[in-house]
C-alpha cells in the first residue's frame, strides 16, 4: 500500500481489481482541509479512462506491472499472438482489447508487453512507427491550395492521409497517438 504522495505519472494503481495507469495528476493543498491529488486513470484492461481523487489519508493500492519485449507473430479471428523474446513462449491478447493500437504494427515487429499478475493485459506501441506506402494515388499538378492530402495504403493494410508528394514505395513515419502522417523516414 502506498499513499497519495506516491502518485505520479505512469504509476499503476489497483481500482476494483483492475490495474489503472496514472496519465494525469494534480496535487492540491487547499488553505483549509485535507490535501488531495486529482488524477486521470486509464484502465489497462478495458482502456476506459476515469477521474479519481485521492485524499491524504486514503490508502492507495500501488501495484507493479512487468514490461517485457515481445515480437508480434500473427493474428487469429479472436486474438493477437506474440512471442516473448527471452523465453520464446507465445502469449496472446484479445483482439478487441488491442485492435486500435495494433493497426500500426506489422508482423515481426517488436513491442513492449505489459503484464499484470503473469497475464498480458496490453501493449505499449512506440510513439512513431515507420511503414512503407504500398499504394497511393498520383498527385494532380496544380492541386496545391491549402494543405492537400491523398489516401495511401500502408504495408500492414492500414490507410491514412498523406501529403501529395508521398509516392508508392516511400517509407513514412506515423504518429501512433493521432494516426497521422508525421514525416518521411530516412531508413
Secondary structure elements and pairings:
Elements: E1 12-15, E2 18-28, E3 36-43, E4 49-55, E5 66-75, E6 79-84, E7 90-94, H1 95-102, E8 110-116, E9 119-124, E10 128-136, E11 149-154, E12 159-163, E13 171-175, E14 180-184
Antiparallel strand pairs: 1-2, 2-3, 3-4, 5-6, 5-8, 6-7, 8-9, 10-11, 10-13, 11-12, 13-14
Supply the key terms.
five-stranded antiparallel beta sheet; 4% helix; 14 strands; SH3 type barrels; OB fold (Dihydrolipoamide Acetyltransferase, E2P); mainly beta; 187 residues; single chain
What does this structure look like?
The structure is a single chain. The chain starts with 11 loop residues before the first strand and ends with a strand. It is flat and about 65 Å long. It has 187 residues and is mainly beta. The chain is built from 1 helix and 14 strands. The strands form 3 sheets. The chain has a 5-stranded antiparallel beta sheet with strand order 7-6-5-8-9. Strands 12-11-10-13-14 form a 5-stranded antiparallel beta sheet, with no helix packed on it. The protein has a 4-stranded antiparallel beta sheet with strand order 1-2-3-4, with no helix packed on it. The protein has one helix spanning 95-102; strands spanning 12-15, 18-28, 36-43, 49-55, 66-75, 79-84, 90-94, 110-116, 119-124, 128-136, 149-154, 159-163, 171-175, 180-184. The protein folds into 3 domains: 4-55, SH3 type barrels, CATH 2.30.30.30; 66-124, OB fold (Dihydrolipoamide Acetyltransferase, E2P) (Beta Barrel); 128-184, Beta Barrel (OB fold (Dihydrolipoamide Acetyltransferase, E2P)), CATH 2.40.50.140. The model has no long low-confidence stretch (mean pLDDT 86).
Amino acid at each position: 500500500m502506498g499513499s497519495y504522495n506516491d502518485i505520479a505519472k505512469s504509476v499503476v494503481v489497483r481500482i476494483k481489481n483492475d490495474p489503472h495507469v496514472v496519465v494525469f495528476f494534480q496535487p492540491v493543498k487547499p488553505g483549509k482541509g485535507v490535501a488531495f491529488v486529482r488524477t486521470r486513470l486509464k484502465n489497462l484492461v478495458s482502456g476506459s479512462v476515469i477521474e479519481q481523487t485521492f485524499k491524504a489519508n486514503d490508502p492507495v493500492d500501488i501495484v507493479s506491472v512487468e514490461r517485457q519485449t515481445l515480437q508480434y507473430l500473427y493474428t487469429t479471428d479472436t486474438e493477437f499472438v506474440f512471442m516473448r523474446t527471452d523465453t520464446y513462449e507465445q502469449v496472446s491478447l484479445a483482439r478487441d482489447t488491442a485492435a486500435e493500437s495494433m493497426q500500426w504494427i506489422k508482423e515481426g515487429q517488436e513491442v513492449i508487453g505489459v503484464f499484470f499478475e503473469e497475464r498480458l493485459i496490453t501493449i505499449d506501441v512506440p510513439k512513431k512507427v515507420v511503414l512503407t506506402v504500398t499504394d497511393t494515388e498520383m498527385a494532380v499538378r496544380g492541386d496545391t491550395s491549402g494543405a492537400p492530402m491523398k489516401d495511401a495504403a500502408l504495408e500492414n493494410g492500414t490507410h491514412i492521409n498523406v501529403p501529395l508528394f508521398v509516392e508508392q514505395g516511400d517509407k513514412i513515419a506515423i504518429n501512433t497517438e493521432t494516426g497521422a502522417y508525421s514525416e518521411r523516414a530516412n531508413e
